[in-house]
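Hey, weird one. I pasted the DNA-binding transcriptional regulator, LysR family sequence into the form twice and got a warning about non-standard characters only the second time. First submission, copied straight from the form history:
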Amino acid sequence: MNFQQLITFLEVAKRRHFRKAAEHLRLTQPAVSAQIRGLEEELGVPLIQRNPFALTPAGKAFIPYAKQILALTEEGKRAALDSGNSLPEEVTVAISSGVALPILSRLLKYFRQEHPRARITIRTKKRSELIRGLREGEVDVGIVCGIPESRHIRSRVIHYDTLTLVAPADHPVARVPYFPLERLADIPLLSLSADTEEQQLISRLLGARGIDPPVAVELRSVEEILRMVTLGFGPALVPKLALQGAENSGIREVRIAGLEVQWPVTLVVPLQRILSPGFRQLMDDICGIYPSEPEE
């Protein structure tokens, strides 16, 4: 078994076509077929049914292992290159929501000043896609809200965040110094989509207190919510971290009495990753840009 066989197998499985895989890999179709046959002979089972095309049960089962072998090989190369105390030259960071953007802005500023040669790629993914990207080697570091339960990752808390109520400056909610928690059930709120982890956390926190605010509009990101609040569309509950560095003219922040709850913003990395000194330094730098202890 060699790496090219694995690469070819994954490309054929992805495109579900020998010729299209051959074109993408810049190989002849006979060469692709020969590599697949060689891999099947070594494993002792058929991986692909030819006519019509279909992955066999063995082929479906082998895909995650082929991806992991290639990911670990690439990781080994990086570990060898990063065996000193220098930081990795290329890092892919994925965020699961807009709440991580203030953290990433600080991180990117740090790298520009201290490690200008490091190339940082930022991707936005759904939480499930982010965890899968870590597992399959597509993502080096993730930043998520809460602590994901997954046996494939390890996590470190970056920061503890709180909820705050924001409203247009001319809205009645903005005229009071604090807002009673129970009154949230009476006002329509701008809300994140129900499939975002922030909104799931907010719903759990409020639901535990018997509060289910009406939803005025559902939006995809915290940034969209803040923009809509600025335009006067109504109040919203948002993570306090999202207000840092944002243009908040026209917005009033109102303290919610009775909702002094904090949750972690977390750094996640693949569990199987070998943590070289350079990569450990990267993790320490990310975790150091905000205090991780809950505020009193």
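That's the output from the first submission. The warning seems to come from a hidden character in my clipboard, not from the data itself. The longest strand covers residues 153-168.
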